[in-house]
Amino acid sequence: MIERLLEADRLLAIGLLDQAERIYWLAAELDRQNAMAVVGLARVALEKGDDRTALQFGRKALEIDPESPAARRLVARVEEVMAQRGEDVPALLAGEAAPEAAPAAAPEGPPATVPTPYPEPPAGPVSPAGPVSPTGPAAGPKGPGRFSRLFGGR
Q1: Residue 153 — left, alpha, or beta (φ > 0 → left; ψ -120 to 50 → alpha)?
Q2: Is the pTM of this model over 0.85?
């Protein structure tokens, strides 16, 4: 398993985000207690500019391994950046919209599980330009996204 994670780290370092993400997902699916794989997914989300998802993955990695230095650093960094931008981190994590995108009337009840915004990784070969065959979104008519299936869904 460690060899796969090292390969994903290498791919991430050279900018092959989709390939790295696919390996991290595979590792997380094979071992749901693999905090290193979840931190890797957080790093991919950061590289894609999705701080909210990165923070969710980082916090999940801390739930798995509260002593993980990588998860602690990542969460602290993302929270600091989001706070500097004036984002309400606790509200974002609770599933509320950012103030500028808030609906007129907030729905009542607990927040729904949060699906990952990224598509399922392709089953076939991957080229440096990305997946060979496109896939649909992870959430929608087919059911919950990978994040919720893996870490809190069905």
Answers
A1: beta
A2: no
